[in-house]
Amino acid sequence: MYFIANWKMFGDLRSLNSLDKVIKFSKSNKINKGRLIYCPPYTLIRSFFKKFENCQIDIGGQNCHESEIFGPYTGSVNCRMLKNIGANYVIIGHSENRKNGENNKLINLKIKNALKAKLKVIFCIGESLNQKKKNNTKLILSKQIKVGLNKIKYKKNIFIAYEPIWAIGTGIIPKPKDLFDTVKFIKSKFKDKSQKVLYGGSVNPQNINELKKINNINGFLIGAASHNSKKFIDIVKKTYN
Ligand code: PEP
Closest ligand 1 atom to the C-alpha of 226? Predict the structure, then answer.
């Protein structure tokens, strides 16, 4: 199981101390088969990389620019730059970035360049509340997958993160049966039956007991609860208890 911490725009150098607990946990047998990946803001990637040097925790960026090469794009960072400072993963297509104008075509370009830069991609998809109410979830997800992964044959390094927008930061999670069916639907879009699909949206130490029973999910993308090491560790521990 994969546990991906999305720190969004939170954290500064003082936050590094809070990782000690997680490092200790990652070296214990309590981690079981859990794989931990931290996606801090760009400003902290190098510091996290150094902090995690002697443990098995991976690092990811939270987004990237679509250009493969350096260029005049103020404020942007591309995938090669992420790789160069120690990231192995990158989140692409997060709804908070889609909201700011990222469309499926742009996301496709970003994914292609991330793979070229030898990064693993956490590809976020998900429907809005309105789309869900109109029964358009499958239609939206299909389009996001089709266009987002257009002309990408080798998908082993792509993890799908199903994040319904209405579940992000709201404390609400999908009904277990709905989530199982949606994950099954997403997996049915791939020839490779081992395609990994994670769930994200308000995962916390309380609801993990319910979520872990949904047996086609391969891990979790965790926002708010991952900023607190104790909560993050609790989620991992409870998944295996
Ligand atoms: C996210 O935005 O990727 C996310 C999962 O956030 P939260 O856990 O806070 O809902």
Answer: 8
Name the residue among 241, 237, 239, 227 with its Cα closest to residue 38.
227
Segment (H or E) for 3: strand 2-6
Q: Could you give the domains of the chain? A: 2-240 (3.20.20.70)
Residue 160 to residue 186: CA distance in whole angstroms: 9
Q: How far is CA 130 from the centre of its chain?
A: 23
Q: Is 197 helix (H, G, I), strand (E, B) or coil?
A: strand
Which residue is closest in CA terms to ligand 1's atom 8?
223
Query: Which of ligand 1's atoms lies nearest the C-alpha of 225?
Result: 8
User: Within the chain, which residues score under 70 in pLDDT?
Assistant: none
The DSSP bridge partners found for residue 2 are 35, 219
Residue 62 in contact with residue 89, Cβ under 8 Å?
Answer: no
3-state secondary structure at position 106: helix
Catalytic (active site) residue 65: no
Contact between residue 241 and residue 205 where contact means Cβ atoms under 8 Å apart:
no
94 is catalytic: yes
pLDDT digits (tens, 9 = 90+) for 31-65: 988 999 999 999 999 999 999 999 999 999 999 99
pTM comes to 0.97
pLDDT of residue 241: 85
